[in-house]
Amino acid sequence: MAKVTGLGSAVIVDDTTPTPQTISNDVTNYQFSTPMAVQDVTGVDKFAHERLLLLADYSVTLNGVYNSAANQSHDVFKTISSTRVNRTVKIQPTSAGTPFLSVVCLLTDYALTRSNTGELTWSVPGVLANGVAPTWS
C-alpha cells in the first residue's frame, strides 16, 4: 500500500443495543494505541535489559462535535454513564475502507466541554474489554 493521508477516515461505534453507528461526521480527531506490556527478566550477569512481551492492550480517545440528531454521537454516547456494555469501536484510517482496526471496548467517559468561544465538543476514552488482542484487518 502506498503512503496516504487520513482524509476520509471512518469511525463506527456501537450504541447500547449494540447497533453499529457511523459517527465519522461528528468525530474531529482520534488517537489510539496498541501497546504490549513487558516483563524485565534481566539477570545480574547482563549489562543491558532483557525483556519478554506480555499482554497486548488497546486504548482509544475519540474527540468530536456535539450532535444530538438520531444515531449520531450524542445518541451513541449518552448512555455511557448509566450502562456497562462492551461496544465495538471500528476505525478505518483511510478512505479505502481497509485496513481497519475493530476492537471491543469499554467506553469509560463522555466528557462535554463548552469553550468560552461557544464550541460544544466531547471526548470519549475507551479501553480493551474482552481479552482479544487488537488485530488489523
Characterise this structure.
Helices cover 4% and strands 43% of the residues. The strands form two sheets. Strands 1, 2, 3, 6, 7, 8, 9 and 10 form an eight-stranded antiparallel beta sheet that branches. The chain has one domain (10-128). The model has no long low-confidence stretch (mean pLDDT 96). The protein has 137 residues and is mostly beta strands. The chain has one helix and ten strands; from the N terminus they run ββββββαββββ.
Average pLDDT, all residues: 96
Instruction: Give helix % range.
Output: under 10%
Q: Strand fraction band?
A: 35-45%
> Could you tell me how far the N terminus lies from the C terminus, measured between alpha carbons in angstroms?
13 Å
Sheet/helix structural class? mainly beta
Number of strands: 10
Assembly type: single chain
Tell me the Rg in angstroms: 18 Å
Overall geometry = globular
Low-confidence stretches: none
Secondary structure tally, helices: 1
Tell me about the largest β-sheet.
8 strands, antiparallel
Number of domains: 1
Helix and strand element order: EEEEEEHEEEE
